[in-house]
Write a structure and sequence with these properties.
Blueprint lengths: L2 H14 L3 E7 L9 H13 L4 E6 L2 H9 L4 E3 L3 H9 E6 L17 E4 L18 H13 E6 L2 H10 L7 E3 L14 H9 L7 E5 L19 H10 L2 E5 L9 H10 L5 E3 L8 H6 L3 E4 L4 H5 L6 E3 L4 H7 L6 H5 L3 E2 L3 H12 L6 H11 L7 H10 L2
Parallel strand pairs: 1-2, 1-4, 2-3, 4-5, 5-6, 6-7, 8-9, 8-11, 9-10, 11-12, 12-13
């Protein structure tokens, strides 16, 4: 029996089978990875609301293994138990796709799909890009149709998200993002061990470099005319600084990523950490002293930490022409330093390390515009909105 037939049968059964109000299924990244908003909310409910039965669903055995290593309940998507729970669960929670946690798109009015989304968008979405892939448009329309609600960090953020996915402002709940709670709460023993295992401790001046991705090519991670990685590494080493490169997961499949691995393999203070090592980038953010990025929406999360940002917007005009931005990107970039050469880049790093934070006020203005809440209670607010549907 093919997966399509099974999915259709499950859809029909989901209309008939009674729902368990205490059963919640979670997923993310179309079942391929563990992390993001849905993972943080999942762990919160398991810990704080044990009277609810929460499960993470994936078809990747390595993902299920990671979840179980954290002593959390997980289900293999194609198991009979997972299929049965999918038609019994009152709530289905995802952050990337309507089928993050199920084999089928919800059709029963007795079930709720909670779409947590990835976050506040910077780049324009598929509905605003010419010749967008049909599969991407279809996925977007499904999220609009199936979602009981989406979450946002402020009314302004909801307006930006509604441009990306026009679901209607009435369907947004201003709760904050679950993954940002980690900034305000203590790390648990598992998280502490994971960071230490990857050499991320408070003993270093930690610099997180997390650029976004480009459809037309791989990211140029060091876009400097005076590029000298040996000098960069020596400067980092002499200043007890660690540069942590976190590529976008789409960049992992591109040739530029392989080139990057070869370029930095012999450097002690330039470290590559992908989703395989640490699923949630916000854990790295928590112990980072500085963010380097281009047009990543991680900027918005990092504002809550109130630490400096350096922008490497090396292809700004090309990116704006080919993709475009929802907010005024020039306003965003004013919240941090800019560098076009490695000399400028190193100068900025050393200035920041010496506690010169020239853009603190600019960041605060942007942060207050984007975040209604600056606490560690986003998970609880999302949970309450969910069970009050």
């Amino acid at each position: 029996m093919t997966k399509k037939i099974i999915s259709f049968i499950l859809q029909i059964l989901s209309i008939i089978v009674p729902k368990n109000k205490k059963l919640i299924l979670f997923g993310g990244f179309s079942g391929k990875q563990y992390g993001d908003n849905s993972a943080f909310l999942f762990e919160y409910i398991v810990k704080k609301h044990p009277n609810y039965k929460a499960y993470w669903v994936s078809h990747k055995k390595e993902v299920l293994k990671k979840v179980k290593e954290k002593n959390l309940p997980a289900l293999f998507r194609y198991s009979l138990k997972s299929m049965w729970f999918s038609i019994r669960a009152k709530y289905i929670v995802g952050s990337h796709n309507v089928k993050d946690a199920t084999m089928y798109e919800i059709v029963s009015k007795k079930q709720h799909f909670i779409y947590l989304h990835h976050g506040i968008p910077l780049r324009k979405g598929w509905f605003d890009i010419k010749n967008a892939p049909k599969i991407s448009l279809k996925s977007g329309k499904a999220k609009i149709k199936k979602s009981s609600f989406m979450i946002a960090t402020s009314n302004y953020a909801a307006e930006q998200q509604n441009k990306l996915l026009p679901i209607g402002l009435d369907k947004f709940k201003i709760t904050g993002l679950p993954r940002n709670d980690v900034f305000f709460n203590s790390l648990n023993s598992f998280e502490t061990k994971l960071l230490k295992k990857n050499n991320i401790t408070e003993n270093h001046f930690n610099i997180l470099y997390a650029p976004t991705w480009r459809e037309w090519e791989g990211t140029n991670f060091f876009p400097f005319p005076d590029k000298n990685l040996k000098l960069l590494n020596e400067t980092l080493k002499s200043n007890k600084s660690l540069l942590i490169i976190r590529p976008h997961h789409i960049d992992l499949e591109k040739k530029e990523f392989n080139r990057l691995k070869n370029e930095i393999k012999d450097f002690s203070n330039i470290k590559l950490i992908t989703h395989s090592e640490i699923a949630d980038i916000n854990l790295i953010c928590k112990l980072s002293n500085l963010l380097i990025t281009d047009y990543s929406s991680l900027i918005y999360d990092f504002l809550l930490i109130d630490k400096p940002i350096i922008y490497l917007a090396y292809d700004f005009d090309i990116y704006k022409r080919r993709i475009g931005f929802y907010p005024d990107m020039n306003e965003i970039i004013k919240s941090g330093y800019q560098a076009e050469t490695q000399e400028e880049f190193l100068k900025n790093i050393l200035e920041i390390k010496n506690n010169n934070d020239r853009f603190k006020n600019n960041r605060k203005q942007l942060r207050d515009k984007l975040h209604k809440y600056k606490d560690g209670n986003s998970c609880e607010r999302v949970f309450n909105e969910m069970i009050n549907l």
